[in-house]
Amino acid sequence: MEDTIFKPLKINDIMKLLPHRYPFLLIDRVTEFIPREKIVAYKNLTFNENFFQGHFPSAPVMPGVLIIEAMAQTGIILVAGTLSDAERENRVYLFTGIEKAKFRRPVIPGDKLVLECSNLQHKMQLWKMDAKAYVDGQLVAQATLTASSAKAEELN
After folding, report:
1. Residue range 73-93, pLDDT digits in tens
2. Could you tell me which of 34, 41, 107 has the C-alpha nearest to residue 71?
3. Among residues 133, 41, 25, which one has the least CA distance to residue 78?
4. Is 55 known to be catalytic?
5. pTM (predicted TM-score)
6. Which of the following is catalytic: 55, 88, 91, 128?
7. According to DSSP H, which parts of the chain are helical?
8. Which helix (H) or strand (E) holds 43?
């Protein structure tokens, strides 16, 4: 990805960087990207999301673990988007840690979940990021996330 002019990444661009697919792809668009530094993305939530049907039928709330996953996917786009095509080839990105996770308020159907990740540290194949999620400018969740990458064939 180029360091100069950034144009928002739409869903097809996102799917080139992430292996996730429906129903587990939790990013709709990337609106800001500064390689090796910061990314801002969002997920529009509708009542039709499969997890709202069972969590909870009478009061739908996005599960906290999926908010964390959405923040992690955003962070992986930051990592993958920073690497060259050759460096990204046949790589799988894995969650290695969650620290200091806090949930401030429920995320419900109709919300636009804005996700921000900032790179705190990068050593070899390990990245540590500060992740935050907002709805209407209000902080709803935050965590320090770590991830690593491995060649896909190493996992088999």
Report:
1. 999 999 988 888 888 888 888
2. 41
3. 41
4. yes
5. 0.92
6. 55
7. 11-17, 64-82, 85-88
8. strand 38-44
